[in-house]
Amino acid sequence: MSGRKQFDVGAAVDQAMRVFWERGYADTSLDALSAATGLGRGSLYGAFGNKEALFTRCLDRYSALYGTRFEQALAAHPHDPVRSIEAFFAVTLDRIADPSVPAGCLVAQSAAQSSTLSAECGARVRSLISAQQQRVRTSLAGSSADGRSLDELATFVVAVNQSLAVLSRVGSPDSELRSVARVACSTVANAISAG
């Protein structure tokens, strides 16, 4: 179509995701989104609706990228729950160490700023954390521990994972983050063997 500028919607979502990831929802302005995507306000609204709708798309994109990596890591050791959790933390530590992406985690960042989100966006963030807990819980299912203990371990693992993202945002060194992950894996191993 002549006269209409075409753009790559996926690339625009990735660029917007990076801005939300770096700044958080409340501190991300339409001007910042426009600058990052190269789209004017009218084009942003035309393509995505509003800031909240774009943010939701960014959460979904982030979840698709990293959720798949977590699932693969957790499934790589189906009969060894501790190795599955080690692989899960390795995904997070690799993302944190990747200089091409912002520090931390978009979901953790959004959870920390949940008071600034609409009820719908807050529910979406909670659902992403719940999905992560379910992934972890599924990977622990082959152990001999009872169901309640496994539920608690899954919550613990996700809490540590989110904490790693927060610690990375404040500049904690890689060695400290890896130490936290090692202690968490030891805790999981001890809890499973005690069960």
TrEMBL record:
The keyword DNA-binding applies. Residues 6-66 form the HTH tetR-type domain. Pfam families: TetR_C_13, TetR_N. InterPro entries: DNA-bd_HTH_TetR-type_CS (IPR023772), Homeodomain-like_sf (IPR009057), HTH_TetR (IPR001647), Tet_transcr_reg_TetR-rel_C_sf (IPR036271), TetR_C (IPR011075). It comes from the Bacteria. Transmembrane segments: none annotated. Keywords: DNA-binding, Transcription, Transcription regulation. GO terms for molecular function: DNA binding. Residues 29-48 bind DNA. PANTHER family: HTH-TYPE TRANSCRIPTIONAL REGULATOR YJDC (PTHR47506:SF1), TRANSCRIPTIONAL REGULATORY PROTEIN (PTHR47506). This is TetR/AcrR family transcriptional regulator. It comes from Streptomyces aquilus.
